[in-house]
C-alpha cells in the first residue's frame, strides 16, 4: 500500500493518473451524450404495442394474439393517415375506451371472462428485433394491454411507424415500413437500427444497450 501511495505522490505519475481519469470521464460523458441523443430520437419517433397474456398456457397465449390482431386492425384504420408519433398517440388516447371494449369483446367472444387493463404511457422495453430492424433497449411510449393476471409472456411490436405485421421469419421488413420509419428518424438513428452488418454501427448499438440495461441511462419522455 505504501509503495502504491508513493507511486501516486510521484509528480510524474500523479499527472498521468489525473490525465487518465479526465480522459475516462470525457469518454463517459461523450458516450452518455451520444446514447442520450440517439435514444431520444428513437423514443420520439416510435409508438409501440405491448400485450401481456394472462398466463403462459397455450390457450392464453393464443388469446393474446387474437386480442393483438383486433387492436391492430382498429389502430391501423385510425392511423392510416398519421405522419408522426404524436398524432398516433393523440388518436390512441382519444379512442382508449374503444380499445378497452375491443379487447374485452374479443376475450368474451373466445369464451373467457378475463379483465383488461389498458394504459398509454412510457415504458421500458428490452432489445427487440423486427425482421432486419432492431430497436435497442430503452424507454418508449406504448399502448400496454394487460389481460387477466398479466403473468404470461409479452408480445411487442411497433404500432407507429407500423412494423406489427412484419413476417419476422423472413428476416426482412418491407420497403414501405422502412421508408416510413426512416422519414421519422435522423440518419444516425436509422443506420443504427437497420445496418446490422457494419462493425462500427453494431458497436454503437451495443453501447446504447449497455447504458439502457445497466441503468446508467434511463431516458424517459
Brief overview:
Helix content is 55%, strand content 18%. It is α+β, with helices and mostly antiparallel strands and 221 residues long.
Describe what you observe in this structure:
- It contains eight helices and six strands, in the order H-H-E-H-H-H-E-E-E-E-E-H-H-H.
- The protein is of the alpha+beta class and 221 residues long.
- The protein has a four-stranded mixed sheet. A two-stranded antiparallel sheet has the order 3-4.
- Strand 3 and strand 4 (133-135) form a beta hairpin.
- Helix 2 packs across helix 8 and helix 3 (58-78) runs antiparallel to helix 5 (96-109).
Helix count equals 8
Question: Sheet bearing the most strands, described?
Answer: 4 strands, mixed
| Helix-residue proportion | 40-55%
Number of strands: 6
Q: Indicate how many domains the architecture comprises.
A: 1
Q: Any idea what the shape is?
A: elongated
Name the strands of the widest sheet in spatial order. 2-5-1-6
Stretches where pLDDT is under 50 for at least 5 consecutive residues are none
Helix and strand run: HHEHHHEEEEEHHH
Structural class: alpha+beta
What distance lies between the first and last C-alpha atoms, to the nearest angstrom? 47 Å
Amino acid at each position: 500500500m505504501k509503495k502504491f501511495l508513493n507511486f501516486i505522490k510521484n509528480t510524474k505519475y500523479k499527472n498521468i493518473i489525473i490525465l487518465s481519469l479526465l480522459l475516462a470521464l470525457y469518454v463517459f460523458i461523450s458516450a452518455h451524450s451520444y446514447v442520450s441523443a440517439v435514444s431520444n430520437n428513437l423514443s420520439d419517433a416510435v409508438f409501440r404495442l405491448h400485450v401481456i397474456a394472462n398466463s403462459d398456457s397455450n390457450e392464453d397465449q393464443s388469446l393474446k394474439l387474437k386480442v393483438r390482431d383486433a387492436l391492430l386492425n382498429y389502430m391501423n384504420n385510425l392511423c392510416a393517415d398519421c405522419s408522426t408519433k404524436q398524432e398516433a398517440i393523440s388518436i390512441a388516447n382519444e379512442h382508449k375506451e374503444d380499445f378497452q371494449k375491443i379487447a374485452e369483446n374479443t376475450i368474451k367472444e373466445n369464451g373467457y371472462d378475463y379483465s383488461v387493463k389498458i394504459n398509454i404511457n412510457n415504458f421500458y422495453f428490452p432489445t427487440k428485433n423486427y425482421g432486419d430492424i432492431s430497436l435497442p433497449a430503452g424507454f418508449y411510449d406504448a399502448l400496454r394491454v394487460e389481460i387477466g393476471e398479466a403473468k404470461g409472456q409479452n408480445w411487442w411490436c411497433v404500432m407507429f411507424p407500423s412494423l406489427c405485421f412484419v413476417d419476422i421469419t423472413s428476416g426482412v421488413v418491407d420497403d414501405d415500413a422502412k421508408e416510413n420509419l426512416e422519414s421519422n428518424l435522423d440518419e444516425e438513428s436509422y443506420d443504427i437500427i437497420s445496418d446490422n452488418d457494419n462493425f462500427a454501427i453494431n458497436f454503437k448499438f451495443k453501447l446504447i444497450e449497455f447504458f439502457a440495461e445497466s441503468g446508467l441511462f434511463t431516458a424517459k419522455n
